[in-house]
Amino acid sequence: MLVACLFALGACESKDDPAPDAGTTVDAGTDAGSDPDAGSDPDAGSDPDAGSTEQPPPLIPEGYTLLMPSETEVHSVPRGGGEAPLRFAFVAEAGHHYDFIVEAANEGYVLDMRDAQGRSIDRVDQRFSGLDPFARSWHWSGLTAGAVHTVDVSQVTVPTRLPFVFRFVDMGLDDSGDLFTTAPSWTPSEQPRMGTGEHKGERDLFSFQTVEGHVYVLDSVFPTMFWELGFFDSLKEPQAFVNGMYFRETHAATAFKSPGGVLYASIQDNQVTLPLQPYTVVLKDLGAEDHGDTVETATALSAGTASVQAKMETLKDKDIFSLGVVAGHAYRVSCTIDGDKGCRLRNAAPGSDFSSLQGGDMSTTAFRASQATHFVHVDLDPVVPARWVEGQYTLQFEDFGADDHGDTLATATPLTGPSQAVSVFIADPSDHDFFSFEATAGQRYQLSCEWKTNPGQLQLSSAFEDMQGTRYPGAIERVDQRWMRTLTAPTSGTYGIDLWTAYTVALGASSCQFDVLAP
């Protein structure tokens, strides 16, 4: 009865589990221990699917050559005369960084690296490099582990003569992605993050969502003086970029005003010493810029404003102010800024373009108002080192009032001599101060003015002029702390003295004197 029950139970279990390879059948009543082969299947393990956890090998696309990373192996592949690209493939390991190094003396090529779905994730156009004298390294990281990535290398239009020579190297683990399509996301905050430049030339690339018009800053401290820092758009065009080549400092920062959308922060630590040390970096959103950069968005300043404080938030920042003025009055605007930076100022009347930069001191601009408002344009002097440090600056405004002397001989201020003090004030580069006098043929007349001694300050330009417009510039002499210009009148009649300057450094007041000299 017991045997019958056991047999019935076994039949039920067999019916519930129809798997053809379910265990090994042993005859009823056989003692497994008495048979040396009992419980042993000579074919056990011959079925590759039986209990196997191994993944099948990756499938390399037809026509592609599988690359195995090597630090020393150099591949030299003939390119032939056709247009068919060279095709390679490799299998990425999790978190690894790969260098595709095209050796020096290669002719032009186009390289296209794609992921397993056929999506292009890096494209290099070197068609116009000719016979490149330098080795070029293309850095790939942040790749999908275990996926097959393909590399197509197309030759230039003109058939090449030389083989394509390259190396493919596994550079080990990378803490961040190196490609735009694989860049990890980053949310701007005050929270610093640390990273490591695993080897020279690789970079850490991050994507972040921006707000149009906001200013973003990347601020880093590196272990060495060798670094590159920048912001890039989705077309890989730099929005702001700086490196340590000229500064020889371990602190780096750069900023830009976003056009909106997704942008990229690039951090490249080119340290070459071992052991490698981490860098620290902060990505900040500084919010909207403080002043508009067009005449439509200009910051309005009421008439009589003496000064205003603002800041240069990026190297490309520009601020525009709409200043309330009195028509006919002359104005001067000057800028002082902190740090190792310099201001540039320009001005424009409503409806006109901003003036070209005036000679000399670019941190000063001057104009004569023709309407009730006038625009002042502020940006940074590009001659100073192009590194970003937020620049606090102050604009000062001076109202010099109406013109003190006429601008032509017809409106000149008359002089009587024989010795007469003359006060001159050249308010802006368009201003002329004209003085007139009655001359006798053969008589000598002289104008002398104080010699400006401030560093870089220029002297006023001057010339004698007759009623027909003929100019008599003559030679300038310097005696002690004054310069002088002398005219021997060729004929009797009315003459004028014209004083002006094209340089902001010579603007302002001058103390002069007019003398009738002995014949």
TrEMBL record:
Q: Which domain of life is it from?
A: Bacteria
Chain segments carrying region Disordered: 13-62
Record protein name field = Lipoprotein
Organism of derivation: Corallococcus sicarius
